[in-house]
Design goal:
The chain is built from 9 helices and no strands. The protein is mainly α. It has a single domain, classed as Tetracycline Repressor, domain 2 (Orthogonal Bundle), CATH 1.10.357.
């Protein structure tokens, strides 16, 4: 639906509190009366945007993290490359909808908190599965806590996305990717020694 696509595009760049429904309707070329035909409120629209973005991003993660033609850490590296290219395509003006909304929790309805947390938990679970595959492949230590590493990954990655958007530069993404992969590999070397 055009309202969802337009809303996601605008909110990944500007955030929820900086945008009115009229802004989105105008960009989408949709009359105001049509909005309430599809959504009873701005809150319901926001929830639909979160769900649409979460579904899109989960498919993206699965495409990279479940690619069994590559070793698991290469899958993670391929995700980094793809995400950086996606941000570069929009001049580093767009970030992550879920991360953007999480930063706005002070002005958003409380119902968003649970939905956003659930999205992060889902992404962490997908990442942890890739990291467990890296354990099986001997790329990271057998004693690594993959769930904890996945949580650490998303905390750091969202910070890198924010910083890249702020600086309009890929440097923070590259630095985080290098650091996270180095952390994984150093744990593997330690467990072998």
């Amino acid at each position: 639906m055009v309202l969802i696509r337009t809303g996601v595009a605008i909110l990944t760049e500007k955030g929820f509190s900086a945008v009115s429904i009229d802004d989105i309707l105008s960009s989408a070329g949709v009359p105001k009366g049509s909005f309430y035909h599809y959504f009873p409120s701005k809150e319901a629209f926001g929830m639909a945007l979160i769900d649409a973005y979460a579904g899109y991003f989960a498919r993206k993660l699965d495409r990279w993290f479940n690619d069994e033609t590559r070793l698991p850490l290469q899958r993670l590296s391929n995700f980094f490359v793809d995400a950086k290219a996606g941000m570069a395509r929009f001049g580093f003006r767009r970030g992550c909808l879920v991360g953007n909304l999480g930063q706005e929790m002070g002005v958003l309805l409380e119902s968003y908190r649970h939905r956003l947390a659930a999205v992060f938990h889902d992404w962490e679970a997908r990442t942890a599965r890739c990291l467990r595959a890296a354990q099986v492949a001997g790329q990271i230590g057998a004693d690594a806590d993959c769930d904890r590493l996945a949580r650490f990954f998303w905390i750091g990655w969202e910070g890198a996305v924010l910083r890249s958007k702020l600086e309009q530069d890929p440097g923070p993404l590259d630095e985080f990717a290098r650091g996270f992969l180095a952390l994984l590999r150093s744990g593997s070397e330690t467990s072998k020694g």
